[in-house]
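Rotation project, supervised by the postdoc (A.L.). Task for the rotation student: set up a whole-complex structure prediction and record inputs and outputs verbatim in this book. Inputs entered:
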Amino acid sequence: MSVQTLLLDFSLDPARLGDENGQKTVFNQLETVLKDYIPNLILAAEIKVDGGSLKLLTGKKGSTVAVRLFDRGLVTVNIEYYKEDSEEPLINFKSARVLENQLKKYMTVIKSQAYPPLKRCLFGRYYPTSDERLLEYDIDGVLFDEQSPFQRVQIVHSKTLGNMLVLDDLQNISEADLVYTETLMKRGKENYEGKEIVILGGGDGALLYELLKEKPKFVWMLEIDETVMNACNKHLRSICGDVLEQRKGHNYEIIVEDCMLTVNKFIKEGKKVDYIFGDLTDIPISESACGELWEFMITILQASFKILKQNGKFMTHGNGATSPESLELYEQELTKLKPPVKFSKSRAFVPSFLEDWIFYQISFKTTDNGDA
Amino acid sequence: MSVQTLLLDFSLDPARLGDENGQKTVFNQLETVLKDYIPNLILAAEIKVDGGSLKLLTGKKGSTVAVRLFDRGLVTVNIEYYKEDSEEPLINFKSARVLENQLKKYMTVIKSQAYPPLKRCLFGRYYPTSDERLLEYDIDGVLFDEQSPFQRVQIVHSKTLGNMLVLDDLQNISEADLVYTETLMKRGKENYEGKEIVILGGGDGALLYELLKEKPKFVWMLEIDETVMNACNKHLRSICGDVLEQRKGHNYEIIVEDCMLTVNKFIKEGKKVDYIFGDLTDIPISESACGELWEFMITILQASFKILKQNGKFMTHGNGATSPESLELYEQELTKLKPPVKFSKSRAFVPSFLEDWIFYQISFKTTDNGDA
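Outputs recorded:
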């Protein structure tokens, strides 16, 4: 079952919506065509709104149609009704496009758009991009859905992407995203053989799984959320193998607690590693580098540098390439760090994000062998 | 300027919406929280609908809020208002998510979803996938927009994909789609050197451009729509080079007319070629292989086979991998063809489609050297 919301837009010559008569004519034209699509359509309410008017119609099966006329020459039509899974839609995208074309001719519009119907009140099918665009995924089932002490953890199935981890209603990683992990670790360009590595976060296990193929000396993975690991161990085996099952091997260990505890322990011991992966939260999208998430990120970075060898690297994911302001802020923060650091970037189209993603490789500016 | 439509969904225990008192309580809870986000909110209309009720509120700046309560336990909230480009949104996605979380706690909901605001009545930002899902692209400008005798031809600019050809409001090819052309032609697996090739359609010039790099003997490109070629020649140079500029070279010719004219001429002359590319319309999505588009496609296939060498190949794009029914219908049609044919398939994720696409390679079943 779902609520179907079908949207249609029209732009008209504003002169046609400038007075009540004009609005009436346009509305009548709309109503005439809509009646062919929605049986038993009647006017239920009519409201004058600042800058326009709104008419509300009701029709078959409890369907409602809101027609909004904006003085500025815009018309929006929102059709909404309840649909059982077994029922045929009242209007599908194909008939919506036919309706759009009919109205276009009938009303002499400048521009128009019909949208594929939104299927609402279902399990998540809609996720945003980093720049807050709306994407409808081909999700056909939910395999896991639990609230952990830290976040809502879901595994959903996409026809295109396979199983996908969703954290707090944001798409995280799918079975189609090997390129994400390979770009994060710069496979083929970095040499991990015999190296000591710390992963901050990385609960889906994909990074650990891929790093272990590169024969490192030892990997510590510091993940706080056991629920994420349980979900991925069961439903994302193709990207994490059995590394989350065993939690410990001859060359790796997963420590389930706040990553700062181990980082601080390493600082105290004077332990230094070759690579640190920041696989925690994304760079927050905000207008200034303020707030809890930014502080958290900078604290983590500062502490990490204390356990990084002088020629070591801090590797992390940034944000969508469509959010240059956010990336710019992050880079500004990097330039303020002490000891001073330099960075390079890599970029990849991540299938489950449906956008290009930016990754950072950060290292110390000085190249002598003294400690930072 | 645009109309902003912000959608919110909630699922509740149906018992709570079962009677008028329950509906009133839920509505009051909603109204209390919404008032913090939309100033001057007042109730403008209240309508009993089959299977639920609808309340309409109006607020600041001519904003309207439609709250629909469905007896089945679903609540939809649609907020709509007019926004100048220079104005701040009344509610953005971030505040919508905060609002969602507030309502979630206040109303004890089972499930909820906030959607990134839809920006309506703009130039196209929203395009459907092959299975009619809604995708919002990061389009920030329109470079070309003309109605040709055959279709509406647009070139839009996407921040992620570069320039993109849009035909009749459907995304067609972008500057990020080399993989589309390479999968269509099976680059590296087919040898085009010294071969004679016919392209049916292909107005964007990308296929011709890539084929010419493979040193063919001659390529005939048969495209009906000059407007498409003019648009791509100007705005998609990175994918078509200068092949559309010259229209004719020592080893290729673009013939601007209905492709069937040249195909029929070749049939009459007894001319046969090594490869034919079907780069016309997609396989129609329909429940049966009927209708104009299917007939057109089969007519083209039948005629093409008459100008294809016995060991030649017909290469074409199919449809989205999420539309298996449509692909299945196409394959059934192929098995009915005379002379009998066999086919193989390839698959690629096409960036501008944001989905996997299926491509077909069709050849005659008999392998002797006699004519078909």
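Student's summary: The two ends of chain B are 60 Å apart (CA to CA).
Supervisor addendum: The mean pLDDT of chain B is 91.
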